[in-house]
Automatic annotation (TrEMBL):
Biological source species: Kribbella flavida (strain DSM 17836 / JCM 10339 / NBRC 14399)
Protein name (database record): RNA polymerase, sigma-24 subunit, ECF subfamily
Highest classification ranks of the organism: Bacteria, Bacillati, Actinomycetota, Actinomycetes, Propionibacteriales
Keyword rRNA-binding set for record: no
Gene3D superfamilies, alphabetized: 1.10.1740.10, 3.10.450.50, Winged helix-like DNA-binding domain superfamily/Winged helix DNA-binding domain
Residue ranges annotated for the SnoaL-like domain, each copy included: 216-310
Length: 332
């Protein structure tokens, strides 16, 4: 940041402001996503943050870095957004032609959206403070982001700022307008809550490794051919399927078998287009139609554990454009 750029921005030069903030936009977007669990909500919070920073630039006194000041604005915008998002009702069953099976449970986090890997470049390779406990790639996984959403808002903010980004306790207290003791107390409770949510998962194979590629290829073939037996062979014993914003979750190989059998038994056949979300393998799912056109039905994100699939999360087709995927394509 140069004094000249800041002076120009304060005088109303939008180009100077964009140049000042450009290095932080992607990482702020990921921060908002971790806080909110929704790609669209994160984008809205990011734009609100940049607008507030632009309008309040005269109030930036330089006591902290511009990056820290932007994180302060973004975090508080996200805390406000979480209060509104908490009032959203879950969506009713909406899978045409398929009768709903009784779910294993109803998920707590239903307004979840995936984050495109294409937007992670430059966003997870950011300078971290000495207090960081998680790798940036680990802290964008669906399991981690989902677990964050279960935490109370203030605990979530403290944990992300302290353990993911590595801000010091006194910096977090300044960001959140609270005491250092309250930060320490919130962090202790947040860590305990997070451990309960994400404990025990076997590591996934490395990204783009032969092991990952082989497992993904087997899934793609099994799903496109509606081969339930081959699909179930790929699952862990406690594998589960979830479908936000519908709250229905199905856990266990036998339950997932019945779910997939009902899906394919209704005559639904899919073409899959590989992509990546949250650092994980993902597929645009296209339902084959009688008009020889496959219509976008959603996005599947796989959570891998060792040489098996631990979870499949199905998102609505409204997320496809964020991944550069079309709404329809010719049937194969």
């Amino acid at each position: 940041m140069t004094a000249e750029l800041m002076a120009r921005a304060r005088s109303g030069d939008g180009d100077a402001f964009r140049e000042l903030t450009a290095p932080y936009v992607r990482e702020l977007q990921v921060h908002c996503y971790r806080m909110l669990g929704s790609f669209q909500d994160a984008e809205d919070a990011l734009q609100s943050t940049l607008l507030a920073a632009w309008q309040g630039l005269d109030g930036f006194e330089g006591r902290a870095s511009l990056r820290t000041w932007l994180y302060r604005i973004a975090t508080n915008r996200c805390l406000n957004a979480r209060r509104s998002a908490a009032r959203r009702p879950p969506q009713a069953w909406d899978v045409p032609g398929v009768e709903p099976l009784a779910p294993t449970r109803l998920g707590e986090v239903v307004w979840l959206e995936p984050f495109p890997d294409a937007l992670l470049d430059g966003a997870v390779d950011v300078p971290l403070g000495p207090e960081a406990r998680y790798q940036q790639t680990e802290a964008i996984s669906l399991a981690f982001v989902t677990a964050l959403q279960v935490l109370p808002p203030r605990q979530l903010a403290v944990l992300v700022l302290r353990d993911v980004l590595g801000f010091r306790a006194d910096e977090v207290a300044e960001l959140l307008d609270c005491s250092v003791e309250s930060v320490k107390s919130a962090l202790k409770r947040a860590r305990a809550g997070l451990r309960r949510s994400v404990a025990g998962a076997e590591p996934a194979p490395a990204r783009d490794s032969p092991a990952e590629a082989a497992l993904v290829a087997r899934f793609l073939h099994a799903w496109q051919s509606a081969d339930v037996d081959a699909l179930v062979e790929l699952l862990t014993d406690d594998a589960f399927v979830s479908m936000p914003p519908m709250p229905f979750e199905y856990q266990g190989r036998d339950v997932v078998r019945r779910f997939c059998a009902a899906l394919f038994g209704a005559g639904r056949r899919f073409d899959l287009v590989p992509t990546r979300a949250n650092g994980q393998p993902a597929f645009g799912a296209y339902l084959r139609g009688p008009d020889r056109i496959s219509h976008g039905a959603g996005l599947y994100v796989l959570t891998l554990a060792g040489d098996r699939i631990a979870a499949m999360t199905r998102f609505e087709n409204t997320v496809l454009p964020a991944f550069g995927l079309p709404r329809s394509l010719p049937s194969r």
